[in-house]
Queue: 3 jobs
Job 1
Amino acid sequence: MPSNLYYFEPCAAGVHVCNLAESYTLIPIARDAAQLPALELPAVLVVDAAEDDLLRLQKSAPKSSAWRIICLLDGESHPPAKLKSRIFAVLPREVPCLTLAKTIEKAFENLHAQEEHHRTRQELRRAVSDLETLNKIGVALSTERNTDSLLELILSKSREITSADAGSLYLVETESNGARHLVFKLTQNDSHSVPFRQFTMPIDTRSISGYAASTGQILNIKDAYRIRNLPFRLNRDFDQKFGYRTKSMMVIPMKNQKDEVIGVLQLINSKEHPGVKLTSPKIVGEEVVPFSQQSQDLASSLASQAAVALENNLLYRDIEKLFEGFVSASVTAIESRDPTTSGHSERVAKLTVALAETVDRLDSGPYKDIRFTRENIREIRYASILHDFGKVGVREEVLVKARKLYPPQLELIKKRFQYIRKSLELEGYRKKVEHLLRNGNQGFEECFALIDGDQNRELQNLDEFLQNIIQANEPTVLPEKVSEKLTQIAGWSFDDPSGPTESLLTQDELQLLSITKGSLNPEEREEIESHVKHSFKFLSQIPWTKELMRVPEIARAHHEKLNGSGYPYHMKSEDIPFQAKMMTISDIFDALTARDRPYKRAVPIDRALNIIGDEVKSQLLDPVLFNLFIDAKIYQLTAND
Ligand SMILES: [Fe+2]
Ligand SMILES: [Fe+2]
């Protein structure tokens, strides 16, 4: 730090001042000079109050505080108020030499202390601002869930805090055989638009990024065209192709908490003025400076935070993938119990998500303010995929029941009828043998014809009964006359050789065959409908994250209808989550149009939309959502699935 000592000449203490030439830069000011010279600071001035030096100083005093006055007084004279804060000491004109020397020394010490104080405060201010910047970046990094956006954020913020014109980001990838390499993931350049092509490179010391990744060292290079004593050189292909000039460069390995390098940040051309574009070598020469130590500290601090955020992000993605895997395994489990609904859950999810995205884009109508975030859409997707999961709690035979009787029941009836047929035939033979034993062959022809006639009539009846039963067994609406016939059939009995006389149809069989519509009796229907409660119970046991918390609530309302006629909770419109209203439309549409049900023919799309339209008219389903389902042609999305 320079020590400039000014004094007016001639001066009462001039001789003493001149003795200090070895310690300070002495600068005399001519007392008769018209104007004071500009002071070179920091400076100490020895002035004589009696000679009006102070008044001259008062007129042109520097604004800075880096100067001090030592004032020599005589008699009653005193310094002007304006200069009071700059006066370090007031001494008598006849001051001893030693006293003056010590006072000057202390004045310079005081200036040095002030300078030190300023510097410390400035550094502190910069440190606080750096910390604030890093904190803000840290928060941004930790909240970004999308990996691509996170990589963009890491690179752009690193460039921002180091004023780097360009930069690239590499990630370390490990193959299944354990081999590791660098993947070029991202590049940014303020001065040129650069086409991007992902490529991989080995982790070794033959490239700049490979060197940083393999050694874990930060490289701070003043001029990338003059790399000395390192095993790599800059690949100038990019510079030649785009007329760019890569000069200063900083390469920072991103290390995770285990000190493993998981990526490399490469920052290029730190600029004096961040807004300037480096469009010519001349501008590069004027603008580009080496990356400062402060930039290096900041960027390496950011790289550490970025590495943790990135690792968390990848971990989060792994968890998501794991959960996706679990969800699709669950769906496979449900659908393998009931192969006739194969693909239903995925299709309902596809349709519902598409409907939600359509709602999200609306800018008019009653739902124009409804918006769905990426997380909301995931919530809808999971709720849709898992809406029927509760079917695992329904007995398989009920779940897949296609007709009124279970197949073994019908089989038993057929066997019973076969037995009766055989019994009738046997009875015929018995009667014929009895005739022959009693009458010989006399009149046997008429007798046999009689026996055969009776038997044929009974067998015909029996066949007719079985046909009625088979007809009644279909899940269509039961015609009244078939219903009457069933009661009649159940009234018939036959001799069971192992026990008492039995009815042609048991009470259970009669009850099932008398179902007026569909294939389920009330208990079975209740059991099927209970799948919703099972879904809710099962989904409620999953510790969903905050963003996915409503999955169970949405899934459990997928069979509810706006007027409260749905099941199992008979919710009214206002209690049904909006997402569930969308899912219900998709669910019904897919149930109607699904082509993979062997016993049920797929309803054509137009007819299915008409059926849903009728439900809308009956105020069961949301009309606005149904119109969107049609207008946005969402129903076409699963046509080829
Ligand atoms: Fe369902
Ligand atoms: Fe469903």
Note: The domain at 144-316 is CATH 3.30.450.40 (Beta-Lactamase).
Job 2
Amino acid sequence: METAARTYEIRTYGCQMNVHDSERLSGLLESAGYVRAEDAEPDVVVFNTCAVRENADNRLYGNLGHLRPVKDGHPGMQIAVGGCLAQKDRDTIAKRAPWVDVVFGTHNIGSLPALLERARVQSEAQVEIEESLVTFPSTLPTRRESPYAAWVSISVGCNNTCTFCIVPSLRGKEKDRRPGEILAEVEALVAEGVLEVTLLGQNVNAYGSGFGALSAAPDEVRAMTEGGQSAFAGLLRACGGVEGLERVRFTSPHPKDFTDDVIAAMAETPNVTPSLHMPLQSGSDAVLRAMRRSYRQERYLGIIEKVRAAIPDAAITTDIIVGFPGETEADFEETLHVVREARFSSAFTFQYSKRPGTPAATMDGQLPKEVVQERYERLIALQEEISWAENKKQLGRTLEVLVAEGEGRKDEETRRLSGRARDNRLVHFTAPDERVRPGDMVTVEVTYAAPHHLVADKPVLDVRRTRAGDAWETRQGEGQDAGQKGVALGMPSIGRPAQPASPVNGCS
Ligand code: SF4
């Protein structure tokens, strides 16, 4: 008699890196014969954790506690904990929650299926944490969540030491992936129908530094940097040569390493989108110094000015931390000044909270909650005003929108569809009579602007059926259990599109 495949569920916390790692965990599990649990209780629950937030550990143990009686009533159920918190807390997790079966770190996600099997056979918790990367994660099987847009890792880890950030100690030093491998993955994705890729790294502008001295770098890197061009600018231009790739995005750049040749590559490569997410964190030089972020306000605004000169329609977004230890009212005013000058189309704003293990957590000058809250509200009010004013400039414009799935919560009741413009603005548009699929492109005229989205309520001007739309349709036909068929090394597969993950502070 055939036994049913074991089912799994992955609960992801934190940043885009984790979202993409979860695509790999899904791919690994499906390659090993597991299938995604749809409605029923899963046989395996994997927590892909984040250590960025204060109290992240309390929340994890709370969730694990809730799962304990479920596990007791479900023979054979296994629980695995991976990600940054697992890397940080290691043995503690198995001690505090002995009903956990597997603990694995950020450097060895490829071991998950073997660890689950070993835990099952030995009836004993398996804890395996590596200090450095075992396999570059992009060589692992991946279950892509979207048929039209994909993350592509170009590097992991970070060589910076921002005092609020736990990433360097948990993800290690920057390691770069060879350009040939990155481009091969991009080409494979495009061949599967993907139209948009987002190049992913903690500090994409430092791409290339992970190979060490240029003289020691692979030939392909040296070719890319000929004439003194930075490796990241070379990579963007190389993505411009991938036929069928319509949109290239990247996240996140660090202002310290942002070079003019990257701006030129953005402006001169037609498929690189007119959008830039560049973390500010603070507008105050004193706070930036305390954060150990080595650019200053003048440099940040200088980059924005150059980007605006080269790409006038660029939508620029950012991350800002309010209430970093020692931040004075005058420091905060500097942040408001940058926000007014930069005119971000939107900003991810965070109230500073201590992350255990980071230098900032023990700094003097921690601010009372009410001070941080009051500043935060002022910042939000200003940014909302600017976002709205910037969006109003889009009224009457004609935009090409990549139709998305799951981006418009009210689409059904408003009879609209939703998608992203080239600059990544969210657009809700009236559904045309003809059928439009996620992954297709529509051309619409903007009729209304809200601070966080645009509306196009006139009839759609054009519908372009795409390979991505075909790929989406094929997936629907294959059904939800088609996961195993779609898993391949670094290749797309079946699934729901990734929800847009907001950056969780810093570059992560
Ligand atoms: S905030 Fe970004 S640049 Fe700074 S240490 Fe963290 S990952 Fe690196």
Note: Residues 480-508 have pLDDT under 50 and may be disordered.
Job 3
Amino acid sequence: MARSTLACPNCQGRRSRTLNSRSQPDRVNRRRECADCSARFSTVEMVVVVRGSRSGQNMTSEEVALRQAKTKLAALRSALRYVLEDDPEEEPT
Ligand SMILES: [Zn+2]
């Protein structure tokens, strides 16, 4: 049964089922269908690792924050690429 998941971008419904799931080394892409409005959307599940720098002791809190932001941005870019360009419906593999 569909468990609570990310809200549907169309109706904000919390029930959806997985149509397609693709595991990659650094993430899992899922194509989902809303149980309420049948809208289809993608989710990307990934680990975001923020490593402390070897010279972390010498970094200011601003530098640490910048490093973390860059790491998150890289993860988001990867996710967005999947959602926009790697849709299994448009481009079956
Ligand atoms: Zn919906």
Note: The pocket of zinc ion is lined by residues 8, 10-11, 13, 34, 36-37, 39 (CB under 6 Å).
